[in-house]
Amino acid sequence: MTSKIDGASAPRPAPAPAAAPTPAAIERSGTPRAQAIAQTQAPSSDNVRLTGEAEALRVVQKQTKAGPPPMDMAKIEALRAALAAGTYRIDPQEIAQRLDALERQLSV
Predict the structure, then answer these.
(1) DSSP the chain
(2) Would the pTM count as exceeding 0.85?
(3) Whose C-alpha in 50, 59, 83, 84 is 20 to 30 A from the C-alpha of 37?
(4) Residue 33 per-residue DSSP state
(5) Can you tell me the distance from the alpha carbon of 33 to that of 39, in angstroms, rounded to the nearest whole number?
(6) By three-state DSSP, how is residue 67 classified?
(7) Residue 87's closest CA among 96, 97, 78, 74?
(8) Mind listing the pLDDT tens digit of every residue in the chain (108 residues)?
(9) Contact 33, 26 (CB under 8 A)
């Protein structure tokens, strides 16, 4: 069968919309109307396996919820004293190496 598409043919009537189920029909379906949808669905047998990165993030999240890590006040005071005395040595090469290592970890 072939059909010529020229736009001059009579338009087809739109299908009648489906009637919404009545409350009585819903109650007859076997589940009370007030019951939650989640309760009527069968339990899922889906499984989720986390990657190593996701597992590490979960550990970090638990640690941050527990509060900030304890501060080593002795080390903080030693750094303050070294800064005040002008003896704190900044090693730009070490800073660059650590930034490079961090960049490599983040781009994996």
Answers:
(1) ------S-SPPPPPPPPPPPPPHHHHHHTTS-TTS-HHHHSPPP-------HHHHHHHHHHHHHHH-SPPP-HHHHHHHHHHHHHT-PPP-HHHHHHHHHHHHHHHT-
(2) no
(3) 50
(4) T
(5) 12
(6) coil
(7) 78
(8) 666 676 665 666 666 666 665 655 555 555 555 555 555 556 667 887 878 888 888 888 888 887 777 889 999 999 999 999 999 999 999 999 999 999 999 987
(9) yes
